Amino acid sequence: MALLLLIGSLFALRVALRAMPVSGFLESGGLDLYIGNRKPQDAVSPRFGTRRNRQGGAQVKSRHRYKPAAVFGCAVMLSGIAVSAPHAQKPPPPVQPGPGAPIPLPERNPARIFAQPHPGEIATPEWSAQEVQDATDRCAMLLAGTGVKYRFLNPIREGRCGTPAPIELSAIGKTRAVAIEPAARVTCGLAATLSSWADGFLQPTARKHLDGEITNIRNIASYVCRNRYNANDKPISEHARANALDMAAFKTQSGDWINVLDNWALPPESFPAAPDASQDKTVTPPPEAKPDTATAPAPAGQIPNRRAETEPAFEPRSAFLYEIHEGACTLFGTALGPLANEAHKNHFHYDLAKRKHGAYCE
After folding, report:
1. pLDDT of residue 133
2. Are residues 183 and 237 both part of a single domain?
3. Same domain for 7 and 142?
4. How far apart are CA 228 and CA 237, in angstroms?
């Protein structure tokens, strides 16, 4: 294939050079090419490129003279282009990953992933005096008789974050005051719901499992102007509306602290040991039941507790945490604990987010 291209290139060069007359005779290195019966003494006619001999003879065909090096260089150049052209058109083969190389994954729907501005950087009008007054009046009515200890703060407005009537919450509970340490910046609606939770679930559960009541709650996050999980591509957090509280520990009357991180999960030794797999392969006939030793059926209306026979009993602190969290699921719009995700392994998150299909509890 390359040879055919070379021959074609030389033929095209020869045809092109025949149409290029050169005037004068070069003293050195010249190469005379003659077509027909042409003589060296022929001169170029000024018209039509024809030549007449010096004696005024008959008209003859044109004579052309060329440099040998130029002819050879053009031929080599054209042949190189012809030979290398097929190779230049082939794309390089794709690089194949090795046996242990990780396979790159495509972006997850990149059209929907884009950086959101920080909620505090979005221009938002300030609360009007009427909005602040109305929110303050509603707050005072809502917290009346709840046992909540608080004081009003200045309106908060940071972009999309804030609330017109925030309070500094220092204690909740009507039957027994539970101090919030440190004091939390929240809305009045959240404070009222927290107080109901303390009276209806927190203290009764503490008396049941801890032989006492709770005196303090460790607050680790209340109002913070941010998106969920501090991510740019997530919606605004309820913390940014002062509508959420994160609590990490509870202090008992005896002075002990019950931490969510340390006391939520059951210890490994409390779970039953896994059965031996070899026992499944051996079939043992059941013993004959004797009439006087047979197990009596459960009384009518009473269902045997199969779960209690297979699951270990809760350690008191774990049972306390599990039950107060289940109670929170009935009052708050969102109730998240260690079972939700890694971000909540050390605390409970409770907020009053409005949801269409009931509370979100995990």
Report:
1. 95
2. yes
3. no
4. 5
Separation between Cα atoms, residue 295 and residue 331, nearest integer Å: 43
Integer Cα distance of 291 and 271 in angstroms: 34
Residues 157 and 254 placed together within one structural domain of the fold: yes
The reported pTM is 0.56
For the packed helices 188-197 and 316-328, what is the interaxial angle rounded to 10 degrees? 140
**Gap between the Cα atoms of 172 and 166, Å rounded:** 16
User: What are φ and ψ of residue 214, in 5° steps?
Assistant: -95, 135
How far apart are the C-alpha atoms of 205 and 213, rounded to whole Å?
8
Residue-number span of the structural domain to which 142 is assigned: 124-270+311-361
Identify which of 232, 269, 246, 214 has the alpha carbon closest to the alpha carbon of residue 328. 246
| Residues constituting the chain | 362
For residue 308, CA distances in Å to 248, 267, 313, 320 come to: 29, 17, 8, 18
Residues 205 and 348 grouped into a single domain: yes
- Kindly state whether residues 43 and 161 are assigned to the same domain: no
Report if residue 298 sits inside a domain.
Answer: no
Which single residue is written with the structure tokens 């005779």? 25
The answer as to whether 163 is a domain residue is yes
Q: What is the mean pLDDT of residues 100-106?
A: 70
- Is 334 a domain residue? yes
The residue among 52, 4, 49 whose CA lies nearest residue 22 is 49
